[in-house]
Amino acid sequence: MPRHLKIAQTTAARLGRYFGTGAEYWLKLQVMYELEALDDEALARIEAEVPVLKPDFFRSQSD
Questions:
Q1: Can you give the pTM of this predicted structure?
Q2: Of 12, 41, 46, 61, which is the most buried if we count CB atoms within 10 A?
Q3: Count of alpha carbons within 13 Å of 8, Cβ hemisphere only?
């Protein structure tokens, strides 16, 4: 399958039925591939744009 194509839910269901694995298996493989395929530039941009949530954030909201 070409790298730029995603597995559709119906295709995952068909593969799961054929191989006896379930659709979830194929969809999880798709997500794992997409996460691995993130390039360093995209990760650096995300790190620069998205702050890290402070551990005490939810505690201070309930006080």
A1: 0.64
A2: 12
A3: 3
pLDDT one digit per residue (tens) for the chain, 63 residues? 556 678 899 999 999 999 999 999 999 999 998 888 889 999 999 999 999 988 887 776 655
Position 20: which residue type?
G
CA dist list (Å): 33 to 29, 38, 63: 6, 9, 41
| d(C-alpha 8, C-alpha 48), whole Å | 32
What one-character-per-residue DSSP string does 3-47 give?
A: TTPPPPHHHHHHHHHHHTS-HHHHHHHHHHHHHHH--HHHHHHHH
